[in-house]
Design goal:
Layout lengths: L3 E10 L2 E11 L4 E5 L6 H9 L6 E6 L2 E2 L10 E4 L11 H11 L4 H14 L15 H14 L4 E5 L7 H18 L2 E5 L3 H7 L2 E6 L2 E6 L1 H6 L4 H6 L6 E8 L2 E4 L4 E3 L9 E4 L4 E3 L7 E10 L3 E8 L3 E8 L9 E6 L5 E3 L5 E2 L2
Parallel strand pairs: 3-8, 3-9, 6-7, 7-8
Antiparallel strand pairs: 1-2, 1-4, 4-5, 9-10, 11-12, 11-14, 12-13, 14-20, 15-19, 16-17, 16-19, 17-18, 20-21
The structure holds adenosine-5'-triphosphate (ATP) and magnesium ion.
Length: about 350
């Protein structure tokens, strides 16, 4: 249960083409995360799957059945939104059992199911309270509990944690992860949060402008981004991208600085290196050097912004912290095993 197949789906709102041909298959029990810039169509894609919005063309199948023209209520999916609309006049227990009442379950059956779900989400002490008497995190848990109580074949989450403070997000993230492992249900989860995407997903789908740019396991996207968009979207701080050209012997930056003596087939035009893959080093070992224009010391890490003559600003992440301050010279060395190259069309070049 919970297999979802999306084939060549398009969606336009009037003359605005929002989803431009999306295909994917999600297997039973898989945790898929949608990421992408604001307005790229993540929520729209989720709403199309849920049946809250008619699609313009293409098909959607759930467990082998074509549900393209089925009503949302008949798709056996549960959606949890960022703004979790709970009924303010109902208790937590009645909020959670509302969908079951509509499904025709008796009061006894409903309360038995809700008790089970409340135990999983540690909501038992709160069952008789009204939503106004709960914290934001507790309310969000009730909204998730309401979705679980319906026992859908798959869950669709649209940025469910974005209203919560940082500490609560971390604990709710862990709860959702454990929950998914326990329920073994298919989940599609939209988020802006890199850490949520990397830690929760079996597979991340990176959207931009209505298409999927790349999909894969989190570390696959981190290690082998297929194009410049994915390279700079996944990872925080962003990957540094510096113009480069092939030289007689390998590849060099545009100012002639050699970066590798490997020949990269396919005419490299952009060199990518993540901030965490640049090391501080002695002058004689450096690939590039420049003045530190910004130094942020976070304790466990330091972030340095280094202005390299003829090259520009380079972000460096020094784990364990750096002794360097603003105005000092940083000598930098690129990790040879962690280099990325892209051609003029911004596609990845294999090494
Ligand atoms: N009902 C609608 N009518 C017209 N345009 C819409 C409608 N819903 C969404 N859009 C447009 O479709 C595009 C995609 O919107 P969508 O909400 O899917 O983006 P998103 O990726 O979820 O963004 P965000 O990260 O900001 O939530 C946007 O340009 C939006 O303005
Ligand atoms: Mg959205």
């Amino acid at each position: 249960m919970g297999k979802i197949k999306v084939s060549n789906v398009h969606k336009s709102f009037g003359s605005v083409h929002v989803i431009k041909g999306v295909d994917f298959e999600i297997s039973e029990g898989e945790f898929v995360v949608f990421v992408g810039p604001s307005g790229c169509g993540k929520s729209t894609m989720l709403r199309l799957i849920a049946g809250l919005e008619p699609i313009s063309s293409g098909t959607i199948e759930i467990d082998g059945e074509d549900v393209t023209h089925l009503e949302a209520a008949d798709r056996d999916l549960a959606m949890v939104f960022q703004s979790y609309a709970l009924y303010p006049h109902l208790s937590v227990r009645d909020n959670m059992s509302f969908g079951l009442k509509i499904a025709g379950k008796s009061k006894k059956q409903r309360y038995a199911i809700v008790d089970d779900v409340a135990e999983v989400l540690q909501l038992q002490p709160l069952l008789d309270r009204k939503p106004a008497e709960l914290s934001g995190g507790q309310r969000q848990r009730v909204a998730i509990g309401r979705a679980i109580a319906r026992e859908p074949s798959a869950f669709l989450f649209d940025e469910p944690l974005s209203n919560l403070d940082a500490a609560l997000r971390v604990s709710m993230r862990a709860e959702i992860s454990q929950l998914q492992r326990r329920l073994q249900k298919t989940m599609i989860y939209v988020t802006h949060d890199q850490v949520e995407a990397m830690t929760l997903a079996d597979r991340i789908m990176v959207f931009s402008d209505g298409i999927i740019q790349q999909q894969g396991a989190p570390l696959e996207l981190y290690d082998r981004p297929q194009n410049l968009f994915v390279a700079t979207f996944i990872g925080s701080p962003n990957m540094n991208i510096l113009p480069c050209i092939s030289s007689k012997k390998g590849v060099e930056l545009k100012n002639g600085t050699p970066i590798t003596d490997k020949n990269i087939a396919g005419d490299p035009a952009h060199f990518g290196i993540r901030p965490e893959h640049i090391k501080l080093c002695a002058k004689k070992d450096a690939n590039i050097s420049g003045k530190v224009t910004l130094a942020e010391h976070l304790g466990v890490d330091s972030f340095l912004l280094v202005d390299v003559p003829e090259i520009g600003a380079v972000n460096v992440r020094v784990s364990g912290g750096a002794q360097l301050g603003e105005g000092e010279i940083a000598h930098l060395k690129f990790d040879q095993k962690r280099m990325h190259f892209f051609d003029k069309k911004e596609n990845r070049l294999e090494q």
